[in-house]
Give the backbone structure.
Amino acid sequence: MALFKSNGIVFRSIKYSETSLILDIFTREKGMRSFIVSGVRKAKAKSKASMYQHLNILDLVAYDKDDKLARIKECKIAHYYNRIAFDVVRSSIGLFLLEVCKNTIKEKEENVELYDFIQDRLILLDSDRPLNLSLFPIKFLLELSQYIGFLPYNNYDSTNPYFDLNNGRFIPEMTEKYICNQEVSQCIAEINGVDITELKALKFPKELRNQT
C-alpha cells in the first residue's frame, strides 16, 4: 500500500477502545484524512497519546487510504508550542481557530495554500511577536474567507459605509436585514486593511469587537 509523507494539524482526537485514538488530521499533501493509532494510551507505549492532541502540528508518514481509517507509520512533532501550551488566552484563541477550521474544511484533497496559512497563523500565535490578541480571531476569519471563496470586497469609503453580509461588500445604505451598522462596518474595514502583525495599532471597545 502506498505511503505519503506530510505535515499535518490535528483537528480532532477521540478515544477509541481501551488504548487507541481516532484522529482527523488536516494534512498538507492530502487534505483532511482520518487515522487510527493503536496502543498509544498504554503506559509503556512507544508513541504517546499526548503527541496527537488537537492543535499539534505533526510530521508524519502514513498509508494513503482516503475512504477509510488509515494507519500512521511514523510520526513526530513538527512544532513544539511554547506559549499556546501555557497561555490561557492564546490556547483559547487556538481552540477557536481550530473549531472554525474543523467545521469549514472537509475536502480530502491537497490545498497547500490553505494548509500553510493555518499552520503559519498557529505558529505566529505561539510566537513572541507583539500581537493584538483581542483582534487576532477576527482577522483570522477575514483571512480564512479568501481561501474558501468569499473574501469581502474592501470598497469601504464615505459613500459606502455599510457592510453587506450577504454580498460581502460595502454599500451606501442599510437597505436589507443583514447589513452592519457604520461602527461595525468601519471596524471590519480597518481590520481587513492591515496585516495581522499590525493590529496593535487598532483599538476597539469590547462591545464593538463582540458585534464584529
The two ends are 48 Å apart (CA to CA). The CA atoms of residues 83 and 126 lie 5 Å apart. The beta strands are 3-16, 20-27, 31-37, 57-63, 70-79, 162-164, 169-171. Helices lie at 88-104, 112-125, 136-147, 182-192, 206-211.
